[in-house]
Amino acid sequence: MKLLIKNMVCPRCVSAAKDVLVSEGLTVKSISLGDAEIEEELTGEQRLSIARKLQDIGFELLDDPRSQLVEQIRISVMQWVRMEGERPKMSDYLSRQLNKDYSLLSKLFSEVRGITIERFAIVHRIEYAKELLCYSQLATSEIAYKLGYSSPAHLSSQFKQVTGMTPKEFRSLGTHDRVSLDAL
User: Fold this and answer.
1) What is the rounded distance in angstroms from the CA atom of residue 119 to the CA atom of residue 110?
2) What pTM was estimated for this model as a whole?
3) Which band of pLDDT confidence, cut at 50, 70 and 90, is reported for residue 183?
4) At 38, which helix (H) or strand (E)?
5) 10: which residues sit within 8 A by CB, 6+ positions away?
6) DSSP per residue over 120-184, as a string?
7) Are 182 and 58 a contacting pair, CB within 8 Å?
8) Within a 10 A sphere around the Cβ of 109, how many other Cβ atoms?
């Protein structure tokens, strides 16, 4: 049985969610960002217990198909942003990953989240750029290419549009204002 868990966006989150499932006596076949596969079928009581335990640690067990698809879109965009090397066009990637027409995905995501997929991807790319500016020694040009921008100027332009400052100005700050991934 497949479970979709909202806000499970880092390895520590995956571990915490797995602990919840195991504590319920379930056999976890696989678990990754956003979803888990267990061997057993859940009873209504187990589903409620798991949902409560996950909520206690900041996650949400998603049952509604629309919410599940929106979460799958969100996770897929995050994976696309962090892709190494040559990356496909985002719309093609999402359509292939989720086996759905991109226009359907785009419309649903905008309705539910109140932001377009494209805008979400830009915001996520900028948050990833902030992370790299804070915690790596990569030059802005290297970060631009790592994130799939056509040029460092394109990254700088989007960075300034989202944050109000250039990557260089951001890096020179003593404190770094970042948004957690689950808040995106």
Assistant:
1) 10
2) 0.74
3) low
4) strand 35-38
5) 33, 181
6) HHHHHHHHHHHHHHHH----HHHHHHHTT-S-HHHHHHHHHHHHSS-HHHHHHSSS-----GGG-
7) yes
8) 22
